[in-house]
Design brief:
Ybab, Chain: A; 2 helices; 52% helix; YbaB/EbfC; coiled coil; YbaB-like_sf; DNA binding; cytoplasm
Length: 112
Amino acid sequence: MAKGGFPGGMGGMNMNNLMKQAQKMQKQMMEKQEELQAKTLEMTSGGGAVKVVITGKKEIQELKINPDVVDPDDVEMLEDLIISAVNEAIRQVEEMYNAEMGRMTGGLGGMF
């Protein structure tokens, strides 16, 4: 049996380096999450009839509705445009997170 380490030559020093690298990656991921949460994304629907600005925390920061699309006889259309813009904004935030975290972990998946 190898002295002071794991079989195959993976001694304590290598394990310490691995742990340090993992901690460094975790810190970088936390910093990246904070950076992403501070970002805002803008989405529109209906050719710009409805605009939504969302933060990286998935909080709606701004909602603008073009007055030309406000039709008291067709409130459902306006509701659909709002839902569409909000849902697309949420999807974009999730895609932004997945892309950035995927770059950082290099495909390690849910290891961290």
